[in-house]
Structures are given as structure tokens and as C-alpha cells.
Amino acid sequence: MSIVRKLDSTEETAHPFLENVVMRPLYSEKEDGGEITCFVVRCKVGSKIEEHVHEKEADIIYVLKGKATMWIEDRGDFALETGVFVVVPKGVRHRTYDVEEELLIYDVFTPPMF
């Protein structure tokens, strides 16, 4: 079954454990039976995503707008800004901090996170 969704027609919900971070699910295993999870994450200025690791999923990120700094254990610190594409393999520690401009990220997890 094909799926067509418009971003502003999906409900923005608080991230389950990060302050000042919200997300809009687009496609998930739970809701759609999908083999990946796709959502848009919005990080407000001053927010941060603490260092963490996804043991089972690769985290694939494309920055739609904004500016911050990201750290990945095998790469170090780099600018996270409009147009940047990032793949964080499963088992690799990473974090996002110094959100200078509101960050809007298209995020995909494979296999699905939820």
C-alpha cells in the first residue's frame, strides 16, 4: 500500500526523553508496518541531544534547515547545517549540541526504531 503524507498534517509530539526536541512521525513499523522509521525532528535553539548509541539501528540524517554542531566518535566534531547528510552506523556514539539556529532534520532509522 502506498502512503502519501504532508508534514504539517502530522502531529508534532515531544521527544520521549529530550527537552526542547519535538518530532513528527512520517512512517513507522508500529503505525505502518514499515521496515524503516522516518520522521522529522525539530531542535529548538539551545537544545542538545546527549551522547548516545543505537545498538540495533543505523541513524541516517539529512539537515533540512538550521545550524548546530554534531560529534560522532569515529569522526569528531563538525558543522550540522542545511544540506548536510550524515550516516551514523549502529553501535557508534554520537551527539548534537550548540544548536545556534532551529534545526529541522529528516531522520531515518533502519531497521525501524518504532
List keywords for this structure.
Jelly Rolls; 114 residues; 1 helix; 8-stranded antiparallel beta sheet
Explain the overall architecture.
The structure is a single chain. The chain is mostly beta strands and 114 residues long. It has a single domain (23-110), classed as Jelly Rolls (Sandwich), CATH 2.60.120.10. The chain is 4% helix and 54% strand. The protein has one helix at residues 29-32; strands at residues 13-14, 21-27, 37-43, 49-52, 58-72, 76-81, 85-88, 94-110. Strand 5 and strand 6 (76-81) form a beta hairpin. The radius of gyration is 14 Å and the shape is globular. The relative contact order is 0.26.
CATH architecture: Sandwich
Helical content band: under 10%
Number of domains: 1
Task: Based on Cα principal axes, name the global outline.
Answer: globular
- Termini separation comes to 19 Å
Order of helices and strands: EEHEEEEEE
Gyration radius, in Å: 14 Å
Uncertain spans: none
Class of secondary structure makeup: mainly beta
Q: Report the CATH topology name.
A: Jelly Rolls
Strand content: over 45%
Per DSSP E runs of 2 or more residues, the count of β-strands stands at 8
Q: Give the name of the CATH superfamily.
A: Jelly Rolls
- Chain-averaged pLDDT: 95
**Sheet with most strands:** 8 strands, antiparallel
Instruction: Give the count of helical stretches.
Output: 1
CATH class: Mainly Beta
Short account of what is shown:
This protein has 114 residues and is mainly beta. The chain has 1 helix and 8 strands, in the order E-E-H-E-E-E-E-E-E.
